[in-house]
Design brief:
Blueprint (H helix, E strand, L loop, with lengths): L2 H7 L12 E13 L3 E13 L6 H5 L4 E11 L7 E10 L2 E10 L6 E10 L2 E10 L3 E16 L3
Antiparallel strand pairs: 1-2, 1-8, 2-3, 3-4, 4-5, 5-6, 6-7, 7-8
Amino acid sequence: MAILGLSLANTAHATGGGPSRGIYLMLGGPLAGSTKDGFVLGGELSVVCLECFRDNPLSRMVKDPWWGGLYVDAVAGPSGGPIRVSVGPEFGFAFFGADAGAVFEKGSGGVGVTARALLTLAFVTGYARGIYQPEPGLSGEFGVLLKLPVINFMN
C-alpha cells in the first residue's frame, strides 16, 4: 500500500531506488469525509506482499512492483456512533491500488460490501470508497490513509 514508504523503511534494490521484496505488516489509519457520518477516523492493519508476483510476465517488462495482501480497518464518526469494520483483499501496481471487502456495522441490518480506489505517495494514500449496507444503503468516503511499514517478515 505505501510503496514509496516501504522504500524509505527498507534497503533499496541493487538496481537502486526501489523498495525491497517482502511481506510487510502495515499499521495506520484513515481520516475521511463520509456521506453518511460527516467525517470518520479509525485504524487499519494490513499484511502486504511486495513483488510476490515477480514471476508474472508483465512484472519482467516493467520496473514498478505488483503488490497484494489483506486488510482490516475500523472507523467511527465523531459522535461516538457505531464502529464500522471492513475486511478483505487489497492489490495494486506501484502507486495505484484497490481493495474490496465485507463491511460490518451494528444496526446496519446485515453484512455489506465495500470497494476502494487508492493512490499512494510516500506514507500517504488518497482514496475514494463506495460502501453498500442493507441500512442505510449506498454511502461513500473520500479521504487519506496514513500507514507505516512495521515489520518485513522476509528480513
